[in-house]
Design goal:
Strand order of the largest sheet: 1-2
Helix content: 55-70%
Order of helices and strands: HHHHHEEHEHEHHEHHHEHHHHH
Shape: elongated
Largest sheet: 2 strands, antiparallel
CATH architecture of the largest domain: Up-down Bundle
Distance between the termini: 42 Å
Strand content: 5-15%
CATH class of the largest domain: Mainly Alpha
Number of domains: 3
CATH superfamily of the largest domain: Fumarase/aspartase (Central domain)
CATH topology of the largest domain: Fumarase C, Chain A, domain 2
Length: 436
């Protein structure tokens, strides 16, 4: 392994202990490495601006850092177990390339604020990607709601047939959910959009570091001012990011549950294309909805990662090595969320509705609520109307004044089948899509 950044003399640490300490840190740092390089460039520029580093040295370091970024992107520089972590790899590269100048790069820094800023930039980038996928999912469900706004299907409560409904109402429920999720991702990003760079090990340094300058250069809205608090945000800010991801994944879980259930032979409402279905290794007759089942499980992955983070954070003030273990659940949750939500439009594009089967699944008793409301509108107290309709149902004499189409057409409360308010949803979605 390359010489450790904290190593002062010959290695004294047991090799097995060092392997345990390093764990999979360097592999996880592959996700953070471009951001670590970006933040190091900003730090170098800051050192030059306060004359803590000669301008020529700064230029040489920045040129080498840009070269390293390009090599990493092209696969020419491999972040592997030669290095304890990504920070070590950066300094080792600069020292090999520039000698003494490379050894100047860590002035005014600690690996603590180095990983904090790289991780915060990684989370911001990941949330932006998830946001884009969420907006795409919202647009696809909204389009489906528009295309089949009046197509009849049963509405369920407790998985029991309840009232006539429409595909429009069903799909619009996901459209509005994904729109809200995209807005939540925006709010979350704004909340955590604060730079910890320049807080070093949590107590500041005896240099007038231009923290506002480096924060602006990295695209942060504000500073985390207090160094001890900056250290305390490692993991806690990410819990909030994962909470927003869980909200998105919960809507994906609900959608996946519906599609899984409605695609069974017993329902037969939905058919998924072969492109998103699999088969059985023993039963030739089987078509399995493996994709939606794994998508349904995704919220559990994010919840597990969030719980892992929360349990790691029971710590006093100051840095503790426990915090190294926050990287894995953060990377796992953000990666899994992005991969899952990205597939939602593809999945929805592959489904076919059996509209006739959906309509046949609505039986006449499902008009009972409409009749009770109609009776109440004539002046009968609703509870009396409710009981009268229950008696009619029991005796098999429920009048069928309305057709199914009339039933959903009469559902005029805002947001209901006859007044879906899709235009309002689309306006919100377009505003989000034009935003950050």
């Amino acid at each position: 392994m390359t010489r450790l950044l904290w190593q002062k003399t010959s290695p004294a640490l047991d090799e097995a202990v060092q392997r345990y300490l390093a764990a999979d840190d360097v592999a996880l740092d592959r996700h953070l490495f471009p951001h670590d390089i970006e933040a190091t460039i900003a730090h170098v520029r800051g050192l030059v601006s306060i004359e803590a580093l000669p301008a020529d040295d700064g230029d040489a370091l920045i040129d080498a850092l840009n070269d390293l970024a390009g090599r990493f992107e092209r696969g020419e520089f491999i972040l592997d177990d030669r290095f304890e972590d990504g920070h070590t790899a950066i300094e080792a590269f600069l020292t090999d390339r520039l000698g003494e100048i490379g050894r100047k790069v860590h002035l005014g820094r600690s690996r603590n604020d180095q990983v904090l800023v790289a991780q915060r930039l990684y989370v911001k980038t990941a949330l932006a990607g998830i946001r884009a996928h969420t907006i795409a999912a919202a647009r696809q469900t909204l389009d489906l709601a528009e295309a089949d706004r009046d197509t009849l299907m049963p509405g369920y409560t407790h998985l029991q047939r309840a009232v006539p409904s429409t595909i429009g109402l069903w799909m619009a429920s996901f459209a509005e959910a994904f729109i809200d999720d995209a807005a939540l991702l925006d709010m979350t990003t704004r909340w955590l959009d604060a730079s910890p760079l320049g807080t070093a090990a949590g107590y500041g340094v005896n240099l007038p570091l231009p923290r506002e300058q480096t924060a602006a250069a990295l695209g942060f809205e504000r500073l985390l001012i207090n160094p001890m608090y900056a250290q305390a945000t490692r993991g806690t800010f990410e819990v909030q990011a994962l909470s927003a991801c869980w909200q998105v994944m919960q809507e994906v879980r609900r959608l996946a549950w519906d599609l899984s259930m409605f695609s069974t032979t017993e329902f037969g409402f939905v058919r998924m294309a072969d492109a998103v279905s699999t088969g059985s290794s023993i039963m030739p007759n089987k078509r399995n909805p493996d994709l939606v089942e794994l998508m349904r499980a995704g919220a559990a992955v994010v919840a597990g990662c969030m719980t892992e983070l929360q349990q790691l954070l029971a710590l006093p003030s100051g840095y503790h090595r426990d915090l190294q273990l926050t990287k894995a659940p953060i990377v796992r949750a953000l990666t899994h969320t992005a991969r899952t939500v990205e597939l939602v439009p593809l999945l929805l594009d592959s489904i076919e509705f059996d509209r006739e089967v959906m309509k046949r699944a609505i039986d006449p008793t499902m008009l009972a609520t409409d009749r009770a409301v109609d009776l109440a509108v004539t002046g009968l107290p609703f509870r009396d109307a409710y009981r009268q309709v229950a008696e009619e149902l029991a005796s098999g004499t429920l009048p069928s004044a309305n057709t199914l189409e009339q039933s959903v057409a009469s559902r005029t409360s805002p947001g209901a089948c006859a007044d879906l308010r899709l235009d309002g949803m689309r306006a919100r979605l377009d505003a989000l899509a034009d935003g950050p």
